[in-house]
Design brief:
The chain is an alpha/beta fold and 155 residues long. It is 28% helix and 28% strand. It has one domain. It has five helices and twelve strands. A hairpin with a 2-residue loop joins strand 5 and strand 6. It is globular, with a radius of gyration of 14 Å.
Amino acid sequence: MLETDLRLTPALRCALKKPFGRIGALRKRPAFLVAVGDAASRSLSRLKPDVSVFDCKVERKGVKPLTTKPDYRCANPAGRITRSAWRALEKAFRKKRSTVFVKGEEDLLALPAVLLAPLGAIVAYGQPGKGLVLVKATRQKKRQAGRFIARFARA
């Protein structure tokens, strides 16, 4: 559980521009699949992600919602990870095949998704201009995500 909202710092923004996993396609469905972002959720829809996180925007342009009845809703302004978003993700991970609508921006939520995902899960998100980033939730990746989150400023 997150105790306070987090704010992205300029130094951390630079560090997070590098993909957190490998760029590529996912051909086979893993035991647990998380899609963060509208483009990632749409491209993986045939694999039926266990958790899909979306904000109805792709590269800041409005797009049609994945669903009109998301399982969870939260607020998460750009450059932040809010307690509201963290709680929504925690709930979504406990329910099979859930959707989380983010009012604001979901980009940074790949980090808590890696922390919350079961070991071996794949967390997928889009990297503008590069493609789909696939992060396997290993102990090492969870530690790395935790270190990134520790570097956020407390809002």
